[in-house]
Amino acid sequence: MCLKFVVIVLISFSTTAFSSNVEYDGWVNINLQHSLTFSDKPVFTDRGNVTIQSLRTGTAVVQQKPLTQSDRVKLRDLSATNEFYQLKSTVTLADGSEISFLSTVKACMLVESELNDILSVSLDYSGRVIAITLAVASTSTCEGAVVPIDKLKEFSTSVFVRHTENGPTPDTATYIQKLEREREAKERGDVKDNRSFLAKYWMYIIPVIILMVITSATNPEGAGAAR
Amino acid sequence: MIATKNFKYIFLIYLFNISYCLYEDQIGKFDWKLNYVGNVKFGTIDSTKRVIVATEENVIASLSLKNGQILWRQVLENPALNQIELLHVDKEVITVSGGKGTWYVRGWDSSSGSLLWEWSFYMENKQRPYWILSKGQLVHIIPVLGSHIEITSYDVHNGRNNGKTMKISTPWVTDLSKCQTAGVYWTCISTNDSSGQLFYTDMLSSANQVRTFPIQSLIGSAPGHIEIKPLESGDSNLFLIRNNVARLLKLQPEAPHVYPYSLSDKAVTAFNGDQTLLLQTIQNSPTNKLTIQTIELQEGTENVFEMDYTNEAGVANIVSAVCKGTACRIFVKSNDNSVSLLQLPGGKVSWTREEGLSQVVAVEFFELPLSELDASIEHEFDSISGDIFSTFYNRIFSQIRQLLVVLSGQQGDSNIGMVRDEFGLHKIIVVVTASGRLYGLDSMSGNIVWSQYLKGVEGFSVLGKLSVPLFVQRSARYSPLMAQCAALMKDKITGHGVMYTFDPITGQSIGNIERLPYQIEQAMLLPYEDDKHMKGLLIMSDNYEVMVYPSSAKPVLLKHASSIFFYTAGSKSKILQGYNLVHSTTDSLKATPTWTLNLGPADLIAVNVRPSSERVHSQGRVLADRSVLYKYVNPNLLAIATLMDDPIHKQVLSIYLVDGVTGLVVYSAAHKRVGKPVHLVHSENWLVYSYYNARFRRMELATVELYEGPTQSNSTSFSSHAVSQLPHPQTQAYIFPGTPLAMLATLTERGITNKHILIALSSGAVTEVPWAFLEPRGPHGTMNMEEGYIPYIPELPIPAEATINYNQSIPQVRGIQVAPARLESTCLVLVYGLDLFYTRVTPSKTFDLLKEDFDHWLIAIVLIGLIVASYITKRLASRKALKLAWK
Amino acid sequence: MVMHKMTFAMNKHLLIFNLIFVTYLKVVSSENSIEEDNDTQGRYLIEGKVFPADHPFTPPNWQASTQLHVNGGEYIGFVKEDGSFIVHNIPSGSYILEVLHPEFSYEQVRVEINSKGKFRARKVNHIQTSAVVQVPYPLKLKPLGKTRYFQIREQWRITDFLFNPMILMMFLPLLLIMILPKMLNDPETKREMEQIGSLTKFEMPEVSDYVTNFLAGTSQTQHAKKNAKNKKRQ
């Protein structure tokens, strides 16, 4: 009867600022069940509970039992045969209704990460859970590392509450401001071109100079010949 | 500052110039357009060599009787909500069209098609009314079951209401399927058998006397199901149909006159001077022949004509006919929605219009096979015997053959046209129409190469759109193996799946039409080929059983079973479910659910995936500081759009990017107070979507681009399972001053060419917007000024030069299909709606081709000039040297 | 033909006659929310007149090929013989009206009908939705011009030809070969040039003479050549 309490305060992956413009709040209780034998009719056994106390801040309390010895062996076997580990999450909403979600990861990835997994809880714009996905942070699929079985004891799960952001809107305000500035500039009179004469007309001057150089290059000889 | 601004401005124009280029002399050079009127609903041959038709596409048009060409065409309101209910051709053409309580009465000039007059009304009552048009009076009838009918009559020319709405007590109107209008009469039968009564009442007379006759007194009391149907184009004539045999009644104020002929209920009348002819087709004729029977209504003289009619779909009905003496012209519609004009007594088909092509539901481009000559060169490499001498011999031999062919100046083949060209521009376009006919179109000309009619099938309704999935199981690349394509449809009656496999080049069916014993839930093409280069087709039935066709693909499937994932987007439950096939055995394929996405009460309105053949050439984007931002290119992404009613925000559009393997929501965004139309385009690492912003009353385009960041997590392969970090989305939105009807990104062979978004607008234009214009530029775009950077302007311009179909407007566009040519710069485009329009687009200009206006002459002249000049100067020099020597 | 422009609502016999509403609506609200509730009770009509392009460019039968789309084809209007149009059955709200013609472009107009049936037409400004530039209603729609779908292909011009790099490449060396030795080796010319004071003015006809003499050996030019030689010997 050893329960582990992990309190993780994590806000969405992408931005930290927008939880303030989330209009909703509430709590969600997620019951986690997993299947350690991958078959077409999976048998789900209890894994733990996640309570998101506030959807807005994403504060979550994760309670998970450590794996029993037999479960560890099952998980290792699952990993050895390159099978999938399945997770069924049942969400109890504030109004008592239940929705369940399924998620699948490669067992070997879970094992190689030493049961370090991520639970991504996606919400729609109104704060309703639309998907719960289990993922393992890794840059590649299984590398074939051998993990001792005692390391497969406790899940350390990070819970990410992922809000639906507000979509982009055309940025008319800055454009109008820009136009306004330009209009004001025009009203003040044309911008004074206070560059020097050379800076303004260099493109006309340079060909003239080149021409002069060429003619003077030919002339002295001619003049010399004439003398 | 002004200077830099001007510079940007110029740059912008310059960019437009490089992106769009069509010269006036290029009209029709690589584009073609086929014009249609739609599925004919009503038609009348008028007195002056024209057929006036009204169609299901809410189009009214005039066709030349001589050759079937469109003389004029007017496209009315959206056919999904509005339909033409009445067509009357007199001195002018009168239409009554509309729906849902909104009705338009319009008069058209029959020679030019311009509007003469128009009026309309709006009713609270959304019930579909009945119409009678007679003697300049338009009568509008609304029956109230079991009680009365409401009659309002208007002056058809100006809509002036002639008196009040009348109510006639008609307790006998119990079922609208038993009621009809025939001429000026409103008529019903009380029961569907001979024991019933026939009621009718004149809608134009003020007396409103109801006549009642027992049916058996009219046509006897044989058993059978009895229906009534008005005789099209006949005045006050009604069919009483028992067991598909129709008897014609002429309704009169006193008692109906029953004609003694047994007819089909599809008979029509034609006026021949003062005589009235009845025309009908007789179905039990041999194939390729059509038998038409004519009956003179008064005298009863019958004539039978046999004519050549090679449409295997068969005639659906005669739409209209006109006779002069013995010569008749009969306008018929076929079951495949094509219309033809037949001539009697000659028995010839004057012309046929393939109107089925106005209802294209699926399009696929197919590569043509190599010409025999090229194929023989390919075969050189078939024999793997590495013998130098034999390969040398082969090489020389085939080159001599090639030389001989060139010298003899002919290709020698009979199917000379349908071979692959050097640049892969010549393709065959397979289109599937709603009527169940498949066509193969030559992409060079738009000519129909082959066509095949499938009886009793229809498309699936996917997200409110009719669709027929087409799968390319094998391309024409593997000669001598035939190319193979599979089309999935459903049976009209049972709803069970129907699979039709065919060779897309010739249109020949491969095997029989397979009628599957289940309904289809999901289908996908396996990404793996079997030993005969055939890709298997995976079909999931409605009770989640999985099948693969052909069965020879099964071993390949089992080999890769753990890496095959697919999903279903339930139309009934709003749950997206992912599956894989890991538990499949050789005996049975098993789909195991792997993930769920629960959309809750939101409506799924669009799902889009990247085109499977798309290649991403560039892995990243170079920023101003020369660092690289790597793209998040996930081939398994699904783009999903949902719309949900909201008490505060009215409607909320949610956009999700979901990984199809793990079900992970990679990106999600919501737009409040927006609505339909919504279109999604997902390509490379980005997504473009359009929606209507109800708050500002404008169309907007939003773009999302996903980046992994400055480092690439795994440069060699991508795995959906390995989630190292979520991609960083960059977003931007634009105002779009047009209404998109369809949207698609261009596709090229290797993905080197820039991407353009093709947008079909409600105005009939198809415009291209370069992706560079839409690319999100970060906050205000000032931070990372990179190469080719275009300043952000909130409102996208729609320049006329960007219209790929120039002045050839395409109304009611339903979709766009693209295919890469083998020339990297070029993308082939087919736009389908009421019309078909094909063209090529070159988003980065034709960088791999010499310019069309490349001046070969100038180069030649200059070269010759240089040579001549050098000779002249040489001579001059020698003369001068001689002169100097003599001095 | 005199047309009665009216619209019917079965329960509410709502007749709107062809009145010119010079509506003076205040800016409806701030930029953030310009939405109004669509009142489905009343149905209105938008009317106006489309003008074709001026005389020589007026396409034949332009009335039949012109359509009016309100809100991207949600409501459609057709043009009569005289160019007038009515778009029927429109509930109150704000609409964008566009004239569709394959050859000519017209400006879009925003038409606003308030719940009392008052009309206001204004220029479409998607960016500043609150900026109102009113246009007269009933609408008078004039073409902006012929729609330019095509790029203009560059014409062959003699100047383009002459300034073509290849042509320059061909002629400049020729000129240099011919002129420079002349300039360097003929002291008399130099002297003469100094007398006249201009290098170019003199040299140009000289070269052309030289070339023509060489290419066409007629007596006249030979005469001229002699003259030129005499001149040089002075």
Automatic annotation (TrEMBL), chain A:
Signal peptide: 1-19
Membrane topology note: Single-pass type I membrane protein
UniProt keyword annotation of Iron-sulfur present: no
Tree of life domain: Eukaryota
Record's subcellular location: Endoplasmic reticulum membrane
Gene Ontology cellular-component terms listed: EMC complex
CDD domains xref list: EMC10 (cd22209)
Spans traversing the lipid bilayer: 201-218
Keywords: Endoplasmic reticulum, Membrane, Signal, Transmembrane, Transmembrane helix
Family: Belongs to the EMC10 family.
Protein's name according to its UniProt entry: ER membrane protein complex subunit 10
Organism expressing this protein natively: Pyrocoelia pectoralis
Automatic annotation (TrEMBL), chain B:
Gene Ontology CC terms: EMC complex
Keywords carried by this UniProt record: Endoplasmic reticulum, Glycoprotein, Membrane, Signal, Transmembrane, Transmembrane helix
Domain of life: Eukaryota
Locations listed in the record: Endoplasmic reticulum membrane
Domain ER membrane protein complex subunit 1 C-terminal: 683-886
Gene3D superfamilies (UniProt xref): YVTN repeat-like/Quinoprotein amine dehydrogenase (2.130.10.10)
Main location: endoplasmic reticulum
Membrane topology: Single-pass type I membrane protein
Transmembrane segment boundaries: 854-873
Boundaries of every EMC1 first beta-propeller domain copy: 22-128, 136-355
GO biological process: protein folding in endoplasmic reticulum
Family statement drawn from the similarity comment of this UniProt entry: Belongs to the EMC1 family.
Quaternary structure and partners: Component of the ER membrane protein complex (EMC).
Protein name per UniProt: ER membrane protein complex subunit 1
Source organism phylogeny: Eukaryota, Metazoa, Ecdysozoa, Arthropoda, Hexapoda
TrEMBL record, chain C:
UniProt-annotated location(s): Membrane
GO cellular component, one term: EMC complex
Keywords: Membrane, Signal, Transmembrane, Transmembrane helix
Superkingdom in the source lineage: Eukaryota
ER membrane protein complex subunit 7 beta-sandwich domain sequence ranges: 59-169
Signal peptide extent: 1-30
Bilayer disposition of the protein: Single-pass membrane protein
Gene Ontology MF annotations: carbohydrate binding
Primary residence: membrane
Membrane-spanning intervals of the chain: 161-181
PANTHER family noted in UniProt: ER MEMBRANE PROTEIN COMPLEX SUBUNIT 7 (PTHR13605)
Family to which the UniProt record says this protein belongs: Belongs to the EMC7 family.
Record's protein name: ER membrane protein complex subunit 7 beta-sandwich domain-containing protein
